[in-house]
């Protein structure tokens, strides 16, 4: 068993959290329609809903807030951010946005027309939605290794270059951009190798398709590369990140992840003419091009976060903490997605509850179990989130796996908090045969998991159905 890395910081300012008594948690569940998105954050003890925008800032970042220059045009914090991003990526043109999806909206508005294609290792949800919103078609070519969730293949975040190449050959002129997601969020925060980025870049160049990165977790990706890719071992993380950015023409960034900030994002690119077009749109949708919808102080927090995030001491702790939690959960009986990703642990709820069929949402059963047993908020990533009704046969289509994601906010929880999560899972595991399925009472036509209301089924129904 690996040891939990020692937190490379001490606590200077605290935010109290309290655990509601069990009967109160039951009441909150009932009121929320057993949907954890409907529960107030104050009623959650340990919140593992997302790693997005939930980082704890450093004293340098908090100090930077007071250095916010709130001038409309040309504030000094923009120039700091610009300098940091140029240094990290090598891309000369830097445009701030209020978060990642705003960057997606701007770039795709200019790049995509109806019927165009975007190819990716896997589009993140909002990225896919922004492509579809333009009437264009997002196509994913994840590495085939990610289908086997138990294998230890080190680069499950890669793009399948053979499929990329044949798709570009078959659709000349129709693919407007190749977008590589670092790390590949939708397959579990798995990294993409330098070798893979280089091969993909060569294919894109040959077919004259621009290559962009969705760089939300570029530092975690570079850390994995430094640990797993022989040709890169021993190189500083910042240089590895730069080697990957060198393969592309630009990037989109949600600074709510590896920006170590609570809000923010940017677009960075080589092409000056494209940057000029982006800035013209930016002023309509986000703000003048030196603030892009952010306060000067937010720009400073992002700039300083980006300076901190490639620190190898921080990354060893960060990625090590997530891996440690994965191993602790496995020790308590959980089947988890392997290898453990950079920002989250994924538990296979289908394996935990073989008696609950996909149509009764075993993942939701586990997510509710975590709240009921321990006041812990997680998120179902299975049939509730991705299940569909086939429009022709009217039969349910279920995703391949019924998962629950435990996303770990950066620099927020200690070993003792995460051990509590593992001990709570041990309780759930002991009672696993009594866990029950759910039925949907209300759902919206799109993204139903955010607002659905569910009812817990009586035990007997689940057993018959299983
Ligand atoms: C979070 C995320 C986005 C969207 O960014 P927001 O800041 O949430 O708008 C895009 N891509 C990836 C990979 C992400 O994780």
Structure in a nutshell:
With 466 residues, the chain is of the alpha/beta class. 40% of the residues lie in helices and 14% in strands.
| CATH superfamily annotation of the largest domain | Type I PLP-dependent aspartate aminotransferase-like (Major domain)
Number of domains: 2
Put simply, the count of helices is 17
Q: How large a portion of the residues is in β-strands, by DSSP E? A: 5-15%
Hetero ligands: pyridoxal-5'-phosphate
Return Rg in Å.
22 Å
Q: What's the CATH topology name of the largest domain?
A: Aspartate Aminotransferase, domain 2
Largest pleated sheet: 7 strands, mixed
| Termini separation | 35 Å
* Outline type: globular
Write the layout of secondary structure elements.
Elements: H1 22-31, E1 46-47, H2 59-65, H3 76-89, E2 93-97, H4 100-111, E3 117-120, H5 125-133, E4 137-140, H6 161-170, E5 175-181, H7 194-206, E6 211-214, H8 218-228, H9 237-246, E7 250-254, E8 265-269, H10 272-285, H11 296-309, H12 312-331, E9 344-348, H13 349-352, H14 362-374, E10 376-377, E11 379-381, H15 383-386, E12 388-389, E13 396-397, E14 403-407, H16 415-430, E15 438-442, E16 453-456, H17 459-465
Parallel strand pairs: 1-10, 3-4, 3-5, 5-6, 6-7
Antiparallel strand pairs: 2-8, 7-8, 9-14, 11-14, 12-13, 15-16
Helix pairs in contact: 1-14, 2-11, 3-11, 4-5, 6-7, 8-9, 8-12, 12-16, 14-16
The structure holds pyridoxal-5'-phosphate.
